[in-house]
Design goal:
By secondary structure, the protein is an alpha/beta fold. Helices cover about 45% and strands about 15% of the residues.
Length: about 230
């Protein structure tokens, strides 16, 4: 399979070199693409200094627009699979093979879950509550048990690439994207995947934004359910 690793990055100059090194060392078979989402720091120049392919967005459009940019690039360059891999250093290149295996067996979207296989990932109380709520709601909607619907560590097969090139949810898209996939009869799978805690830099998701995220996405989910 021809694999593109799409790395959305917003103000990740402190982490991006480690992310690139990790991928080059433990997943050299994939082509990496940094989507610099209007960063105000040196994210782009650091990545370019390491001879990594970079697309610079003119302003910050959010994770959804960044991922869709990578997906459109994948179609243009005839990639078979897109791996979504965060630029904050939390995802681990050695874990990519785990989310690729089900794609080769026919899955359309594979989620790397922080909560399967004995993984112990810690997060704030608010974020953990949101993760649990979304997992339960999406399990009911999709008719299958899902444990980590907010995970940004994913692999997309060709059907998902084609679907999301036309439309991909904006802002906080991970949960909504699964509803879109389910409505289009795509096969969704989860596999255990270890992840790190952020070491450097600062997450854009503050406690207040976590609450906003939960409310916004829950409303979007119910609207999506009512759509034809």
């Amino acid at each position: 399979m021809k694999i593109l690793v799409v790395i959305p990055a917003y103000n990740e100059s402190e982490n991006i070199s480690d992310v690139i090194d990790d991928l080059r060392q433990d997943f050299p078979q994939g082509d990496s693409l940094i989507i610099n989402d209007g960063s105000e720091d040196e994210t782009s120049s650091v990545a370019r200094s390491l001879d990594c392919r970079v697309i610079d967005l003119p302003y910050n459009i959010g994770i959804g627009g960044s991922v869709q940019t990578g997906i459109i690039y994948a179609i243009r360059e005839n990639f078979d699979v897109v791996v979504q891999f965060d630029g904050d250093g939390q995802h681990i290149a050695m874990e990519i093979e785990k989310i690729l295996a089900p794609v080769s067996e026919g899955a359309d979207i594979v989620i790397g879950s922080r909560f399967l296989g004995g993984n112990r990932y810690t997060s704030s109380i608010i974020r953990k509550m949101g993760i649990t709520i979304f997992a339960r709601i999406m399990s009911l909607i999709c008719g299958q048990k899902l444990t980590d619907t907010t995970s940004g560590f994913r692999a997309y097969g060709r059907k998902a690439i084609d679907l999301f090139s036309d439309y991909y949810p904006e802002d906080y898209p991970e949960v909504e994207a699964l509803i879109l996939a389910h409505k289009n009869n795509l096969i969704i799978r989860e596999v255990p995947a270890a992840m790190r805690q952020r070491i450097k830099g600062k997450s854009s998701i503050t406690p207040l934004r976590s609450i906003y995220y939960m409310v916004k996405v829950l409303l979007a989910v119910f609207v999506d359910i009512l759509k034809k």
